[in-house]
Amino acid sequence: MILSPKDKITTPQAAVIVINFILGTGLLTLPRSSTEKVHTPDVWISVILGGAIAIIAGVIMVKLSQQFPEKTFYQYINDIVGKWVGRLLSLVVICYFLTTSGFQLRAMAEVIKYLLLEGTPTWAIIMIFMWVSLYLIIGGINPIARLFEIILPLTVILFLVVTFMSIKIFEIDNLRPVLGEGIIPVLKGVKTTALAFSGPEIMLLLLPFMNQPKKAVKALIVGVSIPLIFYVITVVMVIGALSVDGVVMRTWPTLDLIRSFEISGLIFERFESLLLVVWIMQIFATFTITYYAAALGLAQLSKKSIHPFMFGLLPILYIIAMIPRNINDLFKQGDFVGNMALFLFGLLPLLLLIISRIKGGKYETNT
Amino acid sequence: MKEWISKIGKKGKVTNNDKLEATTSQDTTGQFTDNFILNLEMVKQEIGHNWDVHFREFNLGRTGIRSIIIFVDGLSDKDLIDKHIMPSLMVDFSAEYKQDLPYLKGGISKEFIKNEVLSISEVEEVRSIKEFTSKVLTGSTALIMDGSLNALILGTTKLKTRTIEEPVSEALVRGPRVGFTESLSDNTSFLRGSGEIENLSLVKFQVGKRSKKDLVVAYIKDIVDPELVQEVENRIKKIDMDSVPESGYVEQLIEDNYLSPFPQVQNTERPDRVIAALMEGRVAILLDGTPFALIAPVTLSMMLQSPEDYYERWIPGTFIRMLRYLAAILALFTPSLYIAFISFHSGMIPTKLAISIIGTRSGVPFPALIEALFMEISIEILREAGLRLPKPIGPAMGIVGGLIIGEAAVQAGIVSPVLVIVVALTAISSFSIPQYSAGFTIRILRFPAMLCAATFGLYGVILFFLFMASHLVKLKSFGVPFLSPAVPYRLSEWKDLMVRMPLMMMKRRPKMMHTKNPIRKG
Amino acid sequence: MKQTHSKIRPLFISLSVFLFLSLTGCWSSHEIEEQSLGIGLAFDKGKQSSIEKKLNEQGGGYSKRNLITATYQFITPLVASSTTKQAGPQQKSYVNVSESGDSFHQMVREISLRSEQPVTAHHMKVVVISESLAKSYKLEQLLDQNFRESEVRPSCLVLISKGRASKTLETKKAGEIPAFRLAGIVENAYRSTRILPPMSHIKVESKIKSGSSFLLQNVLSANGQVKFAGAAVIDGKTHKMTGFLNEEELEGVTWITGKGKGGVVKSFYKETGQLIVYEIETMKSRIIPRVKGNNISFDVNIESVGRLSENWVLSGNTFKNEFLKKAEKSSEKEVKRLVRNVLEKMQKEYKVDVAGFGNRLRIENPKVWKKVKKDWDQTFSETPINYNVKLTINDYGTSGGSKK
What we know:
The complex is a heterotrimer. Chain A has helices at 11-22, 26-38, 43-66, 73-81, 83-115, 122-137, 141-165, 184-196, 203-206, 216-249, 253-259, 272-302, 307-322, 327-366. Chain A is mainly alpha-helical. Chain A has a single domain (11-354), classed as Amino acid/polyamine transporter I. The two termini of chain A are 20 Å apart. In chain C, strands 1, 2, 3, 4, 5, 6, 7, 8 and 9 form a nine-stranded mixed β-sheet that branches. A four-stranded mixed β-sheet of chain C has the order 10-11-12-13, with helices on both faces. Chain C folds into two domains: 32-245, no CATH class; 248-404, Nutrient germinant receptor protein C, domain 3 (GMP Synthetase, Chain A, domain 3, 2-Layer Sandwich), CATH 3.30.300.210.
């Protein structure tokens, strides 16, 4: 695919894409999944550590990509490990993006069915969602980036308003003691929390679209830090209100946090609708960007136009989303995606970076 | 005497040129020849059958040279013809011309007529009959003389213009009470006249294949991005239509995306708005015969701005502007949210409100969608009817209709009182949008929003929003993203987006316009 | 430009077609006026109502054990329209329906057989559980359906009634809605120390899960009137109700936890035996666990600032600090009595910790807590507790001076 010069994105836009990619299902489930592992109120420390790990992994990926600022991962991996291994790895990455997007789709449909639309068939919920997303990605990376820029401020404002309303039932005692049982439980949760930050991998593909690829590291750090703040706020507020023991019990703890209080006098009195607005938009963002990443991968692998792939992926995504039989299967799928990400974007980029550094001189003379 | 000779010399040259032209383009028909009778025949064949075209034959001075003036009754200024053209050709002419009788033999010199006889500002020569007829039919007076190759076109156009009035569609409390009129020259004079604008360019085009109209593209040369001007001109040149009666035609023929519900060119009746846009590096298009000028490119934020924002102090300006944004959101989403909450998520409204809604709705036989559609459509009909009715009864009709339909529908138990509030709120909000066509967009869009809400509840509304946002981020108006400067983020320009910061803080022109001169002077 | 148009068009068309088709579905749409708003719920020991009996005689009923009677309070559209449309409500503005059975969810669905507007629980405000039921069933079993389903909000309150719970959902006043009345009284915590902080479903659930004992507000009813009176003690291990704290004991707990927002302390002036009333403005309590080896003890420091709100002591001159000091002393003594009283009850009689001592230990000494966590209630009943009360009167209203 040839990039037209106008199809470039700015540095803030790259950061916004990373932010919107990261925020997704995690916003609702992270407090539970991490508390399950940590079992002390120190989850927020795990979240911060997880964020730090994500930043490190992200920087490695950016450094790798910066060696080939004109190419996406799908293109330059061939230069590093050869054509066949490269193609295979690209396919695995595409699979990863597809599974992630299918997972997000299904998680969204489950919450919607549970809270908003009991009785509406899943296919209807998923279908309309996919169509809107398809309409957006046909426009390419630039409209995607701009839409994300619309979503982000809405998310920030609504999310902060809603969570800070819950201060009414917040009890600081639920968050104490800090490190009462030492650092070990905190470390147990780091893997879970780090996976909640899956999203920096988009930098592997984003770099050639950026008008200033040199600032990619900056974009990445901002892009991970803002979700980090969000996640810390979420975890602190949820645990503060529901206590560690209460959080573990709930399927969607953040939603329950918002449903646990009513503020009369304000027009709404009940605020879960606002949280759902935020959350659906965030899932939409995550879904869209992974969808686009997968389509882009296929297009670049086959060196054909991207549009047929966009249309062709629709049914595949639908099937992936419908694979889990129940909600436990869904969470298992989520874990699977996480483990995949751990390998693909935790270890692989480091390996590739080392290989490319060793071969390093060659490219520079060539290009 | 010396002057005269030099003129003759010139004349000789000109006639030579004439001859040259005549010989080179002899074969092409539809051109004037030096045969007066033939010329006359040709003209008469072309336009002679029109009753309003007047032919007046006479002899030049007392020379016996046959000549004729042709003009359209009503379009041409008869006063001018009678007082300035005819006397100078018939009376004053002779006195001067007799002295140099010897020169007369070779026919008369049109240079002489032009330079010495006709005391009129606009004189032009045409050769082709086509050009000739189009000029005559727009009000000019033609003068054909025996022995002359060309017809002279005398600018005697007298348009029936109305007086300058306050713009009807964009009323302001504070600001100039001047609106464009139907006359292009009046309109351009507004632009020129309102303070001396440096480097204001007014470039003329003609649009319409059959009924030709003048169209002026206005921009400020040292501000505007030349590529933009090029693009606008290209699109105007591509207009392929029989006639272009109103600038709405132009708008639709040059816009980027004809499927979009959003207007991508702004129309305005206010010269001050046009000037403000020009100062930002935009291009204005004025068409003859309509008081609506077009401004391009346009962004979504412009639809929600009014010149008054700038005329008031910045605090009220900001307040009004924010209010308008709120109104736009309300107009778009209130009915759909009403449907979503009433039919789907009764658990998300406050308990006491839920009880009172249940109470008032318990007799209503329709689901919320039908109820809302019924009321929304009837209020749209009311609006339309109020517009079409004669002015004195229009508003009365609106009030009576609104009251009766609202009150009676509630009494009859067809709709619930809460819905009447919702509909009224929507209507008021949609009218508070300063651009009529933008208000239209919002009023139309709320219907699909309502359908989405009726199918998927709140989820549908959110997806509708995302769909609309997806459309908006893809939309461009003359290469400028429709949502700029909101996205991509341009923090420095946000001070004139949702808020209106003090004027001294707005020193730069919008960056999205790629202006040559980014800093506002002064 | 044209290229993208040709791609948008089929999308547009398919979307609109889909929208119109799906309109015929409207799968989840339930108009608000086709539902009854459930606002209150009461659980009692099984006892069939007379209507149920008659229905059963005619052949109604299904296979079930009549263990529990659930009383649903809801507002039907009919009731709602009569209360909103007329100037003043003429009759009862709520409907109570009782169902007996063993599964809560089945009982709710039974109501759909009896009324054209099914009950929704989105607006459920209170759940009242009768004492007899709370003593024989685990709380988590009683409330499981509420925890699980999406309709009941986690903010819905849980109360215990010493008598029949369904009686607390009745009133004789026209226009009053009993469930709202109960939920409203909870908001009055700023006026009395005898009201517990609201215990919503989510809090109850996390308390149950954490295994600590806790209190639930008790509510009494008589003749259509209700009163919040004391609290029920829920044991952390069995999750059943083990006993009651009366109103004064509840006050003591409030003083220990320091969570009161307002209220009064009545005491008698030492010298004359006349009445002095202290009104609480702020209340603060610090529980400090002290661990020495295996011995755990607690210090409780209670501090409060307030005003003298009622004074029957004729000789008392509120402009004099000595009198205020004495008044403070006398109120302090009363608070001490309340605290001592409830500690006695908690440690000796019920052997449970419902005042958050364990929680403080967890925060300050997590390691020790880990060891004692399992048998905390037992350990607690043997720990010595010292307490200090300090009240400060900083205000005595607009009337002062000696009355003589």
